[in-house]
TrEMBL record:
GO cellular component: cytoplasm
Major localization class: cytoplasm
Name of the protein this chain belongs to: Probable dual-specificity RNA methyltransferase RlmN
Keywords: 4Fe-4S, Cytoplasm, Disulfide bond, Iron, Iron-sulfur, Metal-binding, Methyltransferase, rRNA processing, S-adenosyl-L-methionine, Transferase, tRNA processing
Entry function: Specifically methylates position 2 of adenine 2503 in 23S rRNA and position 2 of adenine 37 in tRNAs.
Cofactor entry: [4Fe-4S] cluster
Amino acid sequence: MERISYTSSKKIGCETMKPFVYDLTLDGWKSWAKEQGEPAFRAGQIFDWLYVKRASSFEEMSNLPKPLRTKLEEHFGFVTLDEITRMASKDGTVKFLFGLHDGHAIETVLMRHDYGNSVCVTTQVGCRIGCTFCASTLGGLKRNLEPGEIVAQVLEAQRLLDSTGERVSSIVVMGSGEPFENYEATMDFFRIINDDHGLNIGQRHITVSTSGIVPNIYRFADEMTQINLAISIHAPNDKLRSKLMPVNRRFPFEDVMKACRYYIEKTGRRITFEYALIGGVNDQPEHAEELADVLQGMLCHVNLIPVNYVPERDYVRTPREDIFEFKRILDRKKINTTIRREQGHDIAAACGQLRAKHMESSKR
């Protein structure tokens, strides 16, 4: 997972801006320090201020010489995430709606589990994949997020947890957008949060979910990381999958399965297949039977997701008994299966719902 990221300036939307301070990996900071004629240990000090002490300005970095702090101010900017809304669920889930510097908004979700605190991050403003059951695609794709804008979401959640002495223990890249269509930024994000000099979130505690961007599934396999891979399939065949997920016309189901088999063979790691159950659409016993046949012999796990009601979409929730029948069929066929535990149901915690409401109210 070797890559050094540093650019002197970049274009975000229509604006040319300084790089964000959270864009750089530790190696990126070392390269920048060398370029500036600074000793290599300064990179570690900067990284410590950003991720351990969680400084929010260069002035706070008191063990750095004043001229170096001035250079940092000239070269970099802090990510500004303006909290538009924060909603707290009775189950402890917290959903943030953050405003970005260019007027766009993104969502981040903090989920509390018995085994620790997980943050679900967003990698794009909007999404172009077009899944018909998801609110993230409403309004289409606006732009990719920079690595630092993804990192900043984790830091905002961590600052909330700091008040109770807790920490973020795991990350799921399952928020709005398709991370494998923002591949380089997503990989830099992983390098930054995984670094043991910073947030030190282990690779096995990170999961990335893709709708099946085939070339980057192969690419990710070749990275040989310990990061968990999840694939959104939501149907057992091409015809139904194309109806639910237009991306299937670009990357057909069979090609996605070939890429998944390559990943398993290359890494020896299990894949999670995410399957959103939609009432009367893809949740019938014959769908479960067909899915089990497709997945036979694969090192995999199926995560069944009862679809959230989205007012802008015309789908209904699968009845409880049908969900369990679907699981029983997969279990009987020896496919390891779980049903996702719902969190934040009372605060519109499904991807894109809060942002969609914000977009609608902004228009009014």
